[in-house]
Write a structure and sequence with these properties.
- By secondary structure, the chain is mainly alpha-helical.
- 86% of the residues lie in helices and 0% in strands.
- It contains six helices and no strands.
- The longest helix has 31 residues.
- The model has no long low-confidence stretch (mean pLDDT 93).
Length: 191
C-alpha cells in the first residue's frame, strides 16, 4: 500500500497503462480492421504486426541510448506525440502502405516508452521493495491492455472507426502531456 501511494511508482505506471491502451486498442485492436477495409490480406496483417514488433525492438535499443542523453519527461513526451501522430495517421490513412508506417511509428514509440517507464517506476525504490514496485507497475499498465480495446470498441461502435482513432490520438496526446508535465515537476533536474 505504501508503494502504491508513491507518485514515483504510480505515475510511470499510469503512463504505462496509456501506452498499453494505445497499443492494444489501436495497433493490435482496430488497425487490422481498418487494414482489411483497405484491402489487406491475412499475410499483410502478419507483416504489419512484424513491422510493429521490429520497430518496438529498435525503440528498446534506442531507449538505452536516449535515456542517458535526453531528460525522461522530454523523451516520454516525444513518445506520446509519436503515438498521437501515428494514431491520427491511421484515421487519415487511405492505403495499406501508410498503415505500415503507422505501425512502425507506434512500435517505435512503444519501444522507447515501455522500458523508460518501467525503469522510472522502480528507480527510486529501495532494493528490497523493487519487485513489489515492478508488480504494481505491471498490474497498473495491465489496465490499459483491457481498457484500450474496450473503450476503443465503444467509441468505434458509437462514432465509427476513423473518429475512434481521432479520439484516441487526442486522449493520448492530452494524457501523455499531462503525465510528462507531472514527471517533470517530480524530477525537475531530470525532467
Amino acid at each position: 500500500l505504501r508503494l502504491i501511494l508513491r507518485l514515483d511508482v504510480i505515475l510511470p505506471s499510469l503512463l504505462g497503462a496509456l501506452n498499453q491502451f494505445v497499443i492494444f486498442g489501436v495497433s493490435l485492436g482496430f488497425m487490422p480492421l481498418l487494414a482489411v477495409r483497405l484491402g489487406a490480406t491475412d499475410v499483410t496483417l502478419g507483416l504489419m504486426a512484424a513491422v510493429n514488433l521490429l520497430a518496438f525492438l529498435g525503440g528498446n535499443l534506442a531507449s538505452a541510448v536516449l535515456s542517458r542523453r535526453v531528460p525522461h519527461a522530454l523523451l516520454l513526451l516525444g513518445t506520446y506525440v509519436l503515438f498521437a501522430a501515428a494514431t491520427a495517421g491511421a484515421a487519415l490513412s487511405r492505403s495499406v502502405p501508410l498503415l505500415f508506417m503507422v505501425q512502425a511509428a507506434l512500435g517505435l514509440a512503444h519501444g522507447i516508452g515501455y522500458p523508460t517507464l518501467m525503469g522510472l517506476s522502480i528507480r527510486d525504490v529501495a532494493l528490497d521493495s523493487r519487485t513489489t514496485a515492478m508488480g504494481i507497475h505491471q498490474s497498473v499498465y495491465a489496465a490499459g491492455i483491457f481498457l484500450g480495446p474496450w473503450v476503443s470498441g465503444m467509441l468505434a461502435e458509437s462514432f465509427g472507426l476513423r473518429p475512434m482513432f481521432w479520439v484516441n490520438a487526442l486522449l493520448c496526446l492530452g494524457l501523455g502531456a499531462a503525465g510528462c508535465l507531472a514527471l517533470r515537476r517530480r524530477h525537475p533536474a531530470q525532467g
